[in-house]
Amino acid sequence: MWQAASAAAELQGIQIQTGPDTTELILELDRSPEYTYFQLDNPHRLVFDLVDTQVPEQFRLVQGATALVRSVRYARRTEGVLRVVFDLKTVPYPEVLSTDAAQAHQLIIRLHKNKDLLQKVGKTTPAPPEPHTWVVALDPGHGGQDPGALGKVYGTQEKRLTLQIARRLQQALAARDDIRVILTRRTDTYVRLRHRMALARQQQADLFVSIHADAFRDHRVQGASVFVLSDKGASSEAARWLAEKENQADLIGGISLEDKEDMLASVLLDMSQSVARSNSLSVAGHVFRALQTVGKVHGQRVQQAAFLVLKAPDIPSLLIETGFISNPAEERRLRDPGYQTRLAHAIAQGIFSYFDNR
Ligand SMILES: [Zn+2]
After folding, report:
1. Class for domain 4-119, per CATH?
2. N or C: which end of the chain has fewer CB within 10 A?
3. Model's pTM, two decimal places?
4. Does domain 134-356 bear CATH number 3.40.1190.20?
5. How much distance in Å is there from the Cα of 23 to the middle of ligand 1?
6. Measured between alpha carbons, how far apart are the two ends of the chain, in Å?
7. How far is the CA of 269 from the centre of ligand 1 (A)?
8. CA dihedral angle for residue 243, residue 245, residue 248, residue 250, rounded to 10 degrees
């Protein structure tokens, strides 16, 4: 009988813990492994190769607040080597420590925001850490030849409302200087959905917010709704991303896929997607609660749907239907600059509390 499974070390979990000056990445193993590590730039990554190590079914990823870490991925490489990749937002200054207990072993990677903290041990006044900047991609729905939904009474075009509200939201977010806003369109132009996502990825957005206004055949229906990508949408889209070689190379940077391990690629993608999904649900919850302070919301909670524009695998994304322009009263409200501003401020509050909780 083949005994290799019992001989290998097991990576049982990864924890990410953030302190004021350092972030600790903790690899939890059942014994001390041999390992090597290296750093890659553009984008910044920290890569660990654990010799003769496996990942058991009950593997846990515990991700705390992550001002430094964008995502974590792992994959089995050649002969028993497990590669763990931390995608980072800034240049890391890592320090690797390890601890041993009877049945447990931890490999602790302490990431210093600041090189001085690492090199000048004993320095009494460390420089204040650089403030982290969050990048928010605002996506005004529709545009150009695609007007979106149409209002019943005033003939309001959704594409105009979405741009107006996105601009007000941009202003509201400007209240904080640790937030940088990009817009997927600034004028009345048609932008393909995939191009909107690509723009957000290019700018390394921490959050993607798509703004829409709904229409429904029942004119009585009203209220704002908040959507995140449904599980189903996510998994079918993952398959599509995998089909595209260029996306694959981009997504799985740092891990070679030369040996056509499609299963492996799909595991990696699932991981970064599941972190993005839980963050999407979190920010959507904050925004949904904030919108309840402005007026009627539609539905009891954050909803899930397979919107194409929400399918960036690694950026927390939400879609806000600001209201139903098929409802005459709501169409009037949505055209009102004062109401647009109140909406924008509520959404901004939701985004602030999401970032503050990370
Ligand atoms: Zn729309």
Report:
1. mainly beta
2. N
3. 0.59
4. no
5. 39
6. 48
7. 28
8. -150
The whole-angstrom separation of Cα 222 and Cα 329 is: 9
Q: What are phi and psi of 108, to 5 degrees?
A: -110, 120
**DSSP state at residue 131:** P
Q: Is there a shared CATH topology between the 4-119 domain and the 134-356 domain?
A: no
Planar angle of CA 193, 132, 250, nearest 5 degrees: 40
pLDDT digits (tens, 9 = 90+) for 51-107: 888 888 777 777 655 667 877 887 777 677 888 888 887 776 777 777 776 667 888
Question: Ligand 1: distance of its center to the CA of 143 in Å?
Answer: 10
Burial class (CB in 10 A: 0-12, 13-18, 19+), 330: buried
Report yes or no: 137 and 195 within 8 Å, Cβ to Cβ.
no
Cis peptide before 140 (omega within 30 of 0): no
The alpha carbon of 238 and the centre of ligand 1 are apart by a number of angstroms equal to 23
Can you read off the two tokens belonging to residue 134?
């969050």
Beta bridge partners of 106: 28, 99
Q: Do 68 and 92 touch, CB atoms closer than 8 A?
A: yes
